[in-house]
Amino acid sequence: MTEQQPTDNPPENVTSGAKIRALRLYGRILDAIVTALIFVMLLTLIGALAGLIMDFFAAATAFRDALSNHNLAHGLVDGIDRELVIDVLSVFVLIELFRTFTDYLEYRRVRLRILAEVGIAFILREIFIGLYDHTINSNEILALSVLLAVLVTARIASVKFQPQGNNLD
Question: N or C: which end of the chain has fewer CB within 10 A?
C-alpha cells in the first residue's frame, strides 16, 4: 500500500483561510467606517452645541428687549425662541445616536436597549415640538404615544431578557 503524501495547501484550508482574511478585512473596514462616523457625529454634536449657544444668546437678547419694552404678552415660556427648544431637544437625540455608534464600536453590535432609547428620545422630541408649537393634533399624539409605548416595552424587554453570558448592561 502506498501512503498518501499530505499536501501543503489542501483546497479546504485555502478556502477557509481566504474566508478568514476576507472577514478580517471586512471587520477592519467596518471599524474604520464606524470610527469615521463617530468623528462626524462628534463634529455634528459640537456644531449643534454651538448653534444652541448662539440661539440661547439670541433668545436672551430678544427676551431682554421685550422686557425693556414691556412687551411680554405671552409670558416667559412663550418668549423662548422656538429654535432654541428644537435645538435643545435635537442635542439630546444626537447624544443618543452618538452613544449608539460608540456602543457599536465597543461591543461590535447594536444593542436593542440603546436603539430603543434613541427612538424614545426622537419620539419625545417630536411630541414636545408639536406641543410647544401647538401644531400637533390628537390623532398624531395618539399615534406617537402608541409608538412610544411599543419602544418603551421593547426597551424593558431588552433589559429583562438579555442574552445569556453578556455583561453589556
Answer: N
